[in-house]
Amino acid sequence: MARKETSENPGRLKQIALTYRMTKKVDSKVGLVVAAVGIVTFGVLLAIGFWIDHPVYLGILGFLLAFLAMAIVFGRRAERAAFGQMEGQPGAAAAVLDNIGRGWTTTPAVAMNRSQDVVHRAVGKAGIVLVAEGNPNRVKGLLAAEKKRMARIVADVPVHDVIVGDGEGQVPLKKVRTTLLKLPRVLPGAQVTVVNDRLRALGDLMSNMPIPKGPMPKGMRMPKGR
Fold it and tell me: Where are the bilayer-spanning segments (predicted)?
């Protein structure tokens, strides 16, 4: 057991260091902010300890709370920096959906056009959620076509659609996960499994496309039809 913990700790520290370096590229003040939060938290608790004549106890508590506060602030700023780097990148929404959590099954790129506007699908107890990336006007057609295609086999399942973006009626990338988790849960777990099985039988764009292995040949174009 001791050997296992020893081997895991360097990996965790390395991951934290890597996350810090990536965050600092976007958020240059992350180190100062996190340190300030820790110092202020510890200082306040220690001052209270001297005031009530228990500096040791409050000092220990202050150290623990300072560490916790630093971890929370660092985590939030790292998450914000990660979303900032992904913003506008193709497939960013698919990466968010892939980390939505348990109870959801996600399928990237179930629909796409030659302009590389794309629709991803997530299935959970809230029903089916189609998440679109790309030009708002073009993706509406993709969403409508995908809803029509699914209606043949899952007509009794609620379907929600989300267009990723910062415009009116759109959902910012950083709020996609929260938006899905806030949807009302209307399907039992058994029905979610059935819906997933039906959709897998229907297939999706990536599994139906004859994509060659290795790099895509030069001059190859997206097939017509979407």
Answer: 30-50, 56-75
